[in-house]
Design goal:
mainly alpha; globular
């Protein structure tokens, strides 16, 4: 397998009712980009991208910051 295919195969499937799906929907409502969310919570854009893709689970502290930022 090539590297990209393998990486895509390892990525988790994100259920429609997950925090990621709800976060994406709220970001869309507010017109907020991942970069803006990252800046708003004091994280690197790449880190937020990893959270949103399901590659990494955010720590509880980041989940709380995301919730506050999108409220």
């Amino acid at each position: 397998r090539c590297g990209l295919t393998q990486a895509l195969g390892l990525m988790k499937q994100i259920p429609e009712d997950s925090w990621v799906s709800r976060t994406r929907a709220r970001m869309k409502e507010l017109g907020i980009t991942q970069a803006q969310l990252a800046a708003g919570i004091g994280a690197l854009p790449s880190r937020v991208g990893h959270y949103m893709s399901g590659r990494n689970e955010p720590p509880l502290a980041h989940l709380m910051l995301i919730a506050r930022y999108l409220h």
